[in-house]
């Protein structure tokens, strides 16, 4: 990970923690190379997830380290999920890392599992929200005192104004809900959204440092519904046919290699579908 606040507490004793790859301002290139080399020697492979909003200098550092080490054992996965969505996805990959999957399958599983993360936020304003489409009408409403909006960024963008008849589209399978409150009350998320989505439990976590910038306001409550059970994650990933990358030879699932980004030579199978109550 590229930030310590994106490393959520493990859900069980088997889930390992994650390494934090520091930005250039906090760590010299030599130190970054040494640390990465130790990680590779200890674990064999490195799967690094980072947000698309990561500062360019930090992203450049990640690619530079991989280039200088001249290794094909580092996967750099750039994601469009909001910060808390990336955090729960990272924890899912941490859970799967103790299973019998290869590093290539785990890296490419990030794209598959991201379809099952329902990431959004409660906002008091959408005037500076540029991550999803916002209509002029919604912009105008955000200037009204007391207005609040519920926004879903993944898997499909959606924006509603609280108090109306429209509801956020939730998952049709069993999930838990991670909730991170900023300068806004989280009561609507825990008392209204969670029951509507029939979540099996809520987890309050700290608001990631990057969240106010991602959502355009510090008055935010970020949330992410996710699959918490490693057995369900395992079933989901193992249900997809494993391919071998024709370019680097790494195992993968889906349509693209997580390590070299090469597309598969043949059409990949569609990802599996879960139904509510899956265990």
Automatic annotation (TrEMBL):
Superkingdom to which the source organism belongs: Bacteria
Stated name of the protein: Zinc ribbon domain-containing protein
Organism (species): Streptomyces cremeus
Highest classification ranks of the organism: Bacteria, Bacillati, Actinomycetota, Actinomycetes, Kitasatosporales
